[in-house]
Design goal:
Layout lengths: L2 E2 L18 H8 L5 E4 L1 H4 L4 H9 L6 E5 L2 H4 L2 E3 L5 H6 L2 H4 L3 E3 H25 L3 E4 L6 H11 L12
Parallel strand pairs: 1-2, 2-3, 3-6
Antiparallel strand pairs: 4-5
């Protein structure tokens, strides 16, 4: 059992003094008391590969990360500002000006690139067989498409087989 996110507490009841600032310090301490963590920040933005690598280094062998799938991939769309820069720059000019995008706005190629970017970001945790991906899926045609696409690419929604 673990928690959703690394809570920040001010009282000093859980984290010792000096461990309340900085994600890596909190994660290092947290991982000595809990075997897993649900990473909810991946819902709002795809993490950088180096960030995930740093998180893995801060935790002991056997610690599991449960990443939430990037929100735009599980919903009908999302805020264009939440897209990775490379994807945002690849949007057609008329679509770049929108604030809210649908999966249809992305098109097949960019949707594929978005899944690939998400999966690549989590690869450091996947390679160590330390991750699962959780999707909060509203029922929609777009979601059905997203699940179909994700289940046919490597390192996707399916949980990692224990090492």
């Amino acid at each position: 059992m673990g928690t959703c996110g690394l809570f920040v507490e001010k009282s000093g009841r859980f984290y010792p003094s000096g461990q309340t600032s900085g994600t890596v310090g909190r994660l290092h301490f947290y991982s000595r008391h809990f075997p897993c963590l649900e990473v909810d920040t991946s819902t709002y933005a795809i993490p950088e590969v180096e960030t995930v690598r740093t998180w893995c280094k801060a935790t002991p062998k056997g610690f599991r990360f449960h990443f939430k799938v990037f929100g735009m991939l599980t919903a009908r769309g999302g805020n264009v500002a939440n897209l990775p820069t490379t994807i945002r720059k690849s949007l057609p000019p008329g679509v770049q000006k929108k604030q809210w995008l649908t999966l249809h706005d992305l098109g097949e190629d960019l949707l594929g690139q978005l899944w690939e970017t998400f999966n690549k970001a989590l690869r450091p945790a996947n390679d160590g067989c330390r991750t699962t991906k959780n999707a909060q899926l509203p029922y929609s045609v777009h979601t059905i498409h997203a699940i179909h696409y994700s289940c046919h690419t490597c390192h996707t929604i399916k949980p990692c087989i224990p090492c």
